[in-house]
Design a protein that fits this description.
mainly alpha, 96 residues, 4 helices
Length: 96
C-alpha cells in the first residue's frame, strides 16, 4: 500500500508542531524549575521537621502566617483559581 505525500506529512506532524520552538523551550525550562522548587521545598520541609521539630515545617509556618494575616488564604485561593481554572477555546467560559 502506497501512502500519498499529504498523508505522510499529516502522519509525521506532531501535536506540538503548531507551537513555536522558543515557547516549547521556555515552557520546558519553566516546568523543570517548578519541579525543582517542589522537590527543594519538600526536602527542606523534611530537614526542618527533623532538625528543629514540627513548628519549623513549611506547613506550620504557612499556618502561622495565615493566622497572623487572614487575607493570605484568600490571596492563595485567587492564585490557585487563576492557575487551575479551566481554559476554553476562544477565551470563553463554561457558561458561554
Amino acid at each position: 500500500m502506497q501512502v500519498s505525500p499529504t498523508d505522510q506529512v499529516a502522519h509525521n506532524r506532531r501535536s506540538t508542531d503548531h507551537i513555536p520552538r522558543g515557547v516549547m523551550i521556555g515552557s520546558t525550562v519553566t516546568a523543570v524549575v517548578l519541579v525543582g522548587l517542589a522537590i527543594g521545598i519538600g526536602v527542606w520541609d523534611v530537614y526542618a521537621g527533623i532538625r528543629w521539630g514540627g513548628d519549623a515545617t513549611v506547613s506550620a509556618v504557612i499556618q502561622s502566617w495565615a493566622k497572623s494575616y487572614p487575607v493570605l488564604p484568600l490571596l492563595v485561593g485567587i492564585v490557585m483559581g487563576h492557575l487551575f481554572w479551566p481554559r476554553f477555546p476562544g477565551g470563553g467560559s463554561a457558561a458561554s
